[in-house]
Amino acid sequence: xxxxKLIVPDWPWANKFGIAQxxxxxxxxxxxxxxxxxxxxxxxxxxxxxAQARQVFENIRSILEAAGGNTDDIVxxxxxxxxxxxxxxxxxxxxxxxxxxxYASTGVxxxxxxxxxxxxxxxxxxxxxx
Length: 130
Known about the structure:
alpha+beta, CATH 3.30.1330.40, globular
């Protein structure tokens, strides 16, 4: 039977949710939806989609590294944006972290995230050692 490894970074803001930020099951890592909270709990880039997306991908990178991987291992992302008119800003930042054409992607417009100043949330699935 495969063991699960819970990825629980020492981020004070994350502790209140009572969930793992990532779960490694075998060679697959499931990254919980990440928002633009810096590790200390401050929201990065209020009103700035690119700054928020950058923080989101930094959080995803940290979780994957804790699981023994990196952003090159991502096979699927799902992005939730509060304003789809700004998707190009998100896509430009995503390209800084992920090589185009190497993963599947879904984008969804939502009316609000967990905090009204948050503009983007991204979930990821990664496959390690493939």
